[in-house]
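Practice problem: Amphi-Trp domain-containing protein
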Amino acid sequence: MPKLEIKRMSELSRKEVSDRLIALGRALAGDSEVELGSDGDSITILVADQVQWELEIEVEGDKTEIEIEISWRDGPSDESEAAVPVKPVRRARPRKSTAK
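Answer key — structure tokens:
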């Protein structure tokens, strides 16, 4: 499978970050299929039952950085099962309000 990388950076409130982390946690707890999104785009991925977890906390001067990395390897594919393609899902954009 070709390499796929999606990277989004944005400035959010602590509450918005909390909501996203909680949604990710619920998705991981609920099923092996997890939908992740940002800025109206989303992708659905299959997550293995066992994953590697890496937490990095870096404090340098007045800047603090927390990195959370979750990774896994796909298991050997069973030829009787069809591969599930990973495809981006676009969501409708909110309507623009008209000025009165």
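Discussion: Residues 14-71 form one domain. Students who identified this feature from the tokens alone can consider the problem solved.
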